[in-house]
């Protein structure tokens, strides 16, 4: 379960302007992608719920889970698949609810771990990815720009990331990670809210609220 999340290089955070085009010929892909990236980087905080699907076509596996993410500056909180992840930008706490166990580690900026920065896709995309604009897709009468990103670092556990974001609000809708191990990870974002007030202590694991918790300190 935990390994699956680590391989995602995902979110959402996330997860985190208005472009009123409606046909491929009218879209300036470079401009749209840049506007999306600028908006996500300008957002001061994010609150969103999402569905997370683990897909393995060879093994005929499709499992979907519901999750929640909060993000502010370099801090984030993620609740998914029975695990809560807290990060204040320097320290990361991974709490497994059923086991009442928390693993504490330092953020390693060199490891490119999604769980160290779920908003990485939205930052410095030119530096970290090559990309190809695919066109506009319609979902429930809404239009989304679709872009495929290809990591410049070939050692990452995924080969591509498909992103769909709203053509009018520029808010992210779907992120699909194509894993090299046959596992794909699909995130569909719901109830996306930006610039909401979030206390900094929301991103720190509170030992006092988890009596008897088993602490594994990896620092």
UniProtKB/TrEMBL annotation:
<keyword id="KW-0732">Signal</keyword>
<protein>
    <submittedName>
        <fullName>Outer membrane lipoprotein carrier protein LolA</fullName>
    </submittedName>
</protein>
<dbReference type="Pfam" id="PF03548">
    <property type="entry name" value="LolA"/>
</dbReference>
<feature type="signal peptide">
    <location>
        <begin position="1"/>
        <end position="25"/>
    </location>
</feature>
<dbReference type="InterPro" id="IPR029046">
    <property type="entry name" value="LolA/LolB/LppX"/>
</dbReference>
<dbReference type="InterPro" id="IPR004564">
    <property type="entry name" value="OM_lipoprot_carrier_LolA-like"/>
</dbReference>
<keyword id="KW-0449">Lipoprotein</keyword>
